[in-house]
Here is the input.
Amino acid sequence: MSCPRIEVDLGKISENTQIVARRLNARGIGVTGVTKAVCGHPAIAQAMLEGGAVGLGDARISNIQKLRRAGVTCPVTLIRTPMLSQVDQVVQYCEASYNTELVIIEALAAAAIRNDTVHGIILMVEMGDRREGILPENLAAMAQQVVHMPGVNLKGIGANFACLGHVAPDAAQMATLGNLANEVEARFGPYIETLSGGNSANLPWALSEQSAGRINDLRLGEAILLGVDPVSGKQIAEMHTNAFALIAEVIETDANPIHSPIKLVDSELAKLRVVSNSDNIKRLILAIGRQDTDVMGLSMPAGSTMIGATSDHLVIETKQSRPKVGSEMSFQMNYSALMHAMAAPDIETIMLHDQRSRGSRRAQNTAEHLVLV
Here is the structure.
C-alpha cells in the first residue's frame, strides 16, 4: 500500500452512528451525519446512513456534488450559509440550507423558481457562539419575509454552539430555541419541521435526563467519526475512537543523534526539542508534515514522542525497537488532524471492512460513478 494513507474502518463508523442514533431517537432527536471533515467521502457517508442517520449535512457544495454523483439520494443540507455565486448549485443538489442573510435567501428563491423547485430554508439563530446567526430579537422579522417568499419554504430553525465560542449549550438555551420556534409558528403559521439544536458538543445535554423539548435534530460529525465529546475530548461511552488511522513511512533513522553546535537562525527550528543521546532512544523521520495534516493533532504511538515537524517531515523519538527505513508507523488523529489529512492531495484513503467497494479517494477522483457501499 502507498504512504502516507488514511485507513478507515467503515464498520466502526456505522456502529458509532448506530449507538448515538439509538440513544437520541429514544428522546425524539434525529441524527444528521456531517461529512465535511471527510470531504464528503461517499463510503463514509453511506456508513453513517446505514448506522441510522436520517440525512447528511456538509459545509461545501463541492462535497455535496461528490455525494450526489456517487449516487447518494438521501436529504442533504448545506450547513454553511450559501455563497451568492453558488445558489443555483445549492438548490440543485440540496433539499435545504442554513441561512442568515436575506439577500442570499432571495437569491435562493429566484434560483429555485428557475429550477422549478422549492428550497428549504433553516434560519440560524445566534445564541452565544458568535460564529454566525440571526439575533433572536430579529428572527421573527426574518421568518415573516421567508414565509411570504415564493420559491422557498421555512423548514426550520437552528443554532450552533462550541465552535468559535467553545462553550457547550445548556438546557436553558435549548428551551429558548424551542420557544423561538413556538413564537414563529404562533405569529406566521408555518409548522417548524426541523429544530436543530447544534452539533456534537450538544451530546452531553441531549443524552442527559433533562427534557429535549422541541429539539428534534443534531448535526453530528466529530462524535460519529472519532467517538469523542468535542468539548471535553473524552470518549463517548461504548463508541469507537479508532475508526481512522494515519499511516506514515519511515525515511530516516538515527540511533544516536549528535548535538549540533550550529547556531539556529530560524526561531521555529529553535523550538524543536533536542533529542536525548540515550542509547535506548532512537530518532526517526517520517515522510509526512504540516502540509499534510495538523501535526499537533496526532497521537504518538506508545513509547514515542514528537520532536517537531516541517512542511514535509515529522521527527520523533522512540524507545521502540529500531524501525527500519521503509517501515510504517500508525497515528491516531483528532478532528483538526483528520480534517486536514482528508483534504491533503497526497494522502490516499483506504476503506477497511468494506467488501463491496475498496476504492480509494484517488480512484474516486477519476471515477465519479463509484458504487456506494
Remarks:
- The mean pLDDT is 87.
- The domain at 10-226 is CATH 3.20.20.10 (TIM Barrel).
- The first helix runs from residue 10 to 25.
- The chain has two domains: 10-226, 244-365.
